[in-house]
Structures are given as C-alpha cells and as structure tokens.
Design goal:
Blueprint lengths: L5 E6 L4 H11 L4 E5 L12 E2 L5 H4 L9 E4 L5 H4 L2 H21 L4 E5 L11 H14 L5 E6 L3 E2 L7 H10 L9 E2 H12 L5 E6 H7 L2
Parallel strand pairs: 1-2, 1-4, 2-3, 4-5, 5-6, 6-9, 7-8
Helix pairs in contact: 1-7, 4-5, 7-8
Length: about 210
C-alpha cells in the first residue's frame, strides 16, 4: 500500500459508481487531493478540486502531478440518443481523458469497462467496451487496471426500465455474471489503487465483489 498522500484524478464523479468512489477518496487519510471535473458542481470539500464544464473542454486545462486516475465514465444508448453519441462518451471521451492523464505523468489508470468487453463482439455495447480496452492498452501505461463489472446495482436518478426488470435476476446469477452493487465496486476500485504492479490487469466481476467486501 502507498503510505504517502496521493493525488487522484477522477472522471465520472457524478455517476452511480463515481459518487461512491469520490466519497471514499475524500475520506481516505492518505489522499491529499482529488481533482474531479464535472458538469455540475459537487459538494465542497477541502481536499476536492472540482473544475466545472464539459470534460472534453476541460481536459487541456487539467494540470497537476497525479499518481492514480480513475475513469468511471459511461452512458446508455437511450441517454446518448445514438450509437455514435454513445461511442463518443464510452470510448472517445474515456480515451481522451486517459491520454491527458498519461500526459500529466500519471502512473496508474483504473477504468470501468464491462463484463463481456470484446472488440470482436456482435453486440454493440460489448464491442465499444472492447475497443476502449484496446485503445487504452496502446497508451503505454506503467500500470493499467481494467475492471469488468456485471450489471451495476444501486439507486439511480433516472431508473432504467430494463435494469429494474433485470436486477432481481442479476442477483441470482452465478460467478462473474451476478450483479454488483456500485458501492461494492467503488470499494474494489480503491483496493486496486493500493496495489503496486506493472502492466495490464483485467479484473472480472466476481473478483471485484470479493475485493469490495
């Protein structure tokens, strides 16, 4: 574990998992500063730097010395409105954020992908996530951790009908297919940030649940 204060860069702090992760980061004594750009203001905290605006416009202005970056960006086809708009967030914006973090000298990137991510998948969602993983692997990260959670569980501002219908079933599925609470995933992401390592590590949903207990 890192015993010195850390500076963290976080994208997606207003999302289901990002909110839980931000709360954990701000309550960790080893975290010195969290920089979390968002479209809407977050609650003030002495350890939080919260640039306001569209992330793609804020990226050039992000500066600092960060050890770890978390990418919790993600949308849905319904929210995005089209496949192109979905890909612009879940792939293009996530890759641009990671590239900026790497340019700033960040050593470790932790990104939320998805169960079944595969650039050759016949399913659009899984294909985009697979493309995201492939793009991040080319950026030369000293340490890249890819989290592949199953369905995320937890209260949302805009509940999705399909998720409401699937949630009871997802809790009963075996192994890595079982749904995972967003708060559990957030705890797992923080645990993963404390692990010193080299190269790429892919963490499936069953291991994420174990790490987040």
């Amino acid at each position: 574990m890192y015993l010195t204060p850390q500076r963290i860069l976080l994208a997606g702090a207003t999302g289901l998992t990002g909110e839980h992760l931000l709360d954990r980061l701000l309550n960790e004594p080893t975290v010195e500063r969290v920089v979390a750009p968002t479209r809407r203001p977050l609650a003030e905290h002495p350890s939080l730097d919260n640039p306001i605006g569209p992330l793609d416009q804020l990226l050039p202005s992000l500066h600092g010395d960060f050890h770890t970056a978390f990418c919790c960006l993600g949308t849905t086809l319904k929210q995005a409105g089209s496949q192109a708009a979905f890909r612009a967030v879940d792939h293009d914006l996530a890759v641009a954020f990671a590239e900026r973090a790497r340019t700033l000298g960040t050593r470790h990137l932790i990104v939320i992908s998805a169960l079944g991510a595969d650039s050759q998948s016949r399913f659009f969602y899984s294909r985009v996530k697979g493309d995201l993983e492939a793009s991040l692997r080319t950026q030369g990260w000293p340490q890249l951790t890819i989290a592949r959670p199953a369905q995320l569980l937890g209260p949302r501002l805009r509940p999705r009908l399909g998720e409401r219908l699937m949630t009871p079933l997802s809790r009963l599925l075996p192994g890595r297919y079982r749904g995972i609470e967003a708060c559990t995933l957030a705890r797992a992401l923080w645990r993963l940030a404390l692990e010193e390592g080299e190269g790429v590590r892919v963490v499936e949903s069953d291991e994420l649940r174990r790490l987040g207990r």
